[in-house]
Amino acid sequence: MKNEYDNERFFEEYAQMPRSRDGLAAAGEWHQLKPLFPPLQGKTVLDLGCGYGWHCTFAAGQGAARVLGLDLSRKMIEEARRRNAEEQIEYRVCGMEEYEYPDDTWDCVVSNLALHYIEDIENIFQKVYRTLKSGGVFIFNIEHPVFTAGVGQDWIYTEAGVPQYWPVDNYFFPGARNTHFLGCDVVKQHHTLTQILMGLLRNGFALEAAEEAEPPKEMMQLPGMKDELRRPMMLLVKANKA
Question: Which of 85, 109, 116, 216 could form a disulfide with 143 if both were Cys (CB 3.0 to 4.6 A apart)?
Answer without folding.
Answer: 116
